[in-house]
Amino acid sequence: MAASSAPPPFIEPALGVVFDLDGTLVDSQHDFPRLRKTVVQLAERHGVPPGRLSITETVARLLRDATAILEREGLPEGQVFRFEKEVNQAIDTIEMEALPRTRATPNAGPVLQALNDQGFRLGLLTRSSEHFARSALLKTGLSPYFPFLRSRSSPGPVKPSPEALRLLLDTMGVPPDRAVLVGDQLLDCECAVAARVRFYGVLLPPHDPLFVDTDRFKAHGASAVAQDLTELAGFFGVRVPRPPAGHGRSAPPMPASGPR
Description:
By secondary structure, the chain is an alpha/beta fold. The chain contains 9 helices and 8 strands.
């Protein structure tokens, strides 16, 4: 859904910055086709009529649509809960398989350090599990920057629900009009816009199947779009040297067609 033409009034300067994890701060090369196929298979096993879900949809939409269909089919609440639990356990397992190949995106550490030095409160909002998110942050050396984190494992709503972002900001002590959400997907942008929080997009490499271009981000309400984290730092008045040549993102080592 496109954003309203009248953005909410934001207060300068920003006080807090919330980051998406995968694709924004780390490259994990999750097997998204397998994740989506697993969700569809489990949903059909629990009562979703075959053909009602498409593996071309994002994992987030598949979960939402599957739950809605099961509820409309009149399944007992306990059975819907069992589906959600089983599918999250399956996703957790597939996510953790990506941990050995997970690495920080170029300049993630220096940019986070610079923002931290300038006094910005940093938070993480991810659809990954708590275990994967914490493990990925530890593996990449980014863990010290994120005392505030909400994941798919957190109680209550999860991204892209705007309430998930509001809950995180409340924990951080940051008003929505003084916050920024940073991410690489339209799901992140739509979450921010719905929460009346400004959004800064970060572009994936054009060869990435999940690439979203600047025009699409702007059409969905992004306040600004950066080519990478180094350029993003400049949006906050922070200068970070670019990494040496050859330290950029490379083409994905495994196929990852379609959306997340």
